[in-house]
Design brief:
eight-stranded mixed beta sheet; 279 residues
Length: 279
């Protein structure tokens, strides 16, 4: 109840949607991911003004504009750096980071490693479609070596990047995979990731039907992980090294304490600091 006795309206997925209509290609998996994110935030129950969504560049990085939360659309590969600074400065906020496999694992790969290592309490959601959709079909770090395309005839012949392996090795406290074709299951998994303390990483298989139409078959290929989540990184490592890339569920839920820097009182009042910069 508020001061005048009016009960606040219950939060629903619609509470977190902006009036801006997504401009993704018809059939893009990111539509379902956006739906899952708004459902997850409704489950969490924090109002939009207590949530911040940060992104980099790419199709999936448009998501902040499609929510009613605070949003920051940053530069390519730098979303985790911005989100880490935001969470440390405003620990009261729920901070989500959204991006794609190109933005997160290529130009943003270094930030990904150190965000896992620092273990700041935020949630990183990566929509992985094994291609750069915005740059018209360029192979990404997760593209299969033999995938033939106009931009890489005959394939790149470069070993793929394994996000879950890297996240676990670098120190992420929660590692999971979801599939955009299951928005309700994805929403529940995202909510679990947000509630879990520390750096939570959720890879979402999100088909690019324009440049990778064969990914439509993912809906018949994904399957629930045959084993329960573990808090033992050694056991999780064994499992993920034999993973076929289509297991859905939580791989690892650790118990490492999140990084919380010591907050010291400012040595001077804000007005005094401002005075030093007057010209």
């Amino acid at each position: 109840m508020n001061d005048i006795g009016i009960q606040p309206a219950a939060l629903t997925p619609a509470s977190f949607k902006s009036a801006i209509k997504p401009i993704w290609c018809p059939g893009c998996g990111d539509f379902s991911v956006l739906s899952a994110i708004t459902k997850a935030l409704a489950m969490i129950g924090r109002p939009p003004h207590e949530v911040a969504v940060v992104s980099g560049i790419g199709c999936s990085s448009r998501i902040p504009a499609y929510t009613s939360c605070y949003g920051f659309h940053g530069v390519h590969g730098r979303a985790l750096a911005a989100a880490t600074g935001l969470k440390i400065a405003r620990p009261d906020l729920t901070v989500l980071v959204t991006g794609g496999d190109g933005d997160g694992y290529s130009i943003g790969g270094n930030h990904f490693l150190h965000a896992c290592r620092r273990n700041v309490d935020l949630t990183y959601i990566v929509m992985d479609n094994h291609v750069y959709g915005m740059t018209k079909g360029q192979p990404s770090p997760t593209t299969e070596p033999d995938w033939d395309s106009k931009l890489a005839p005959g394939g790149t012949h470069i070993r793929v990047f394994h996000p879950l392996v890297v996240a676990l090795a670098a120190g992420a406290n929660f590692v999971a995979r979801a599939f955009s074709g299951d928005p309700n299951g994805t929403a529940a998994l995202i909510a679990q990731a947000i509630r879990h303390p520390g750096f939570s990483f959720v890879e979402i298989l999100s088909p690019c039907v324009t440049f990778r139409p064969e990914q439509k078959e993912w809906k018949t290929q994904v399957h629930a992980s045959p084993v329960e989540a573990t808090d033992d990184p050694v056991r999780a490592a064994r499992r993920v090294m034999t993973d076929d890339g289509l297991n859905i569920g939580v791989l690892y839920a650790g118990n490492r304490a999140p990084y919380v820097p010591e907050r010291r009182p400012s040595p001077a009042a804000v007005t005094e600091l401002e005075a030093e910069f007057r010209v």
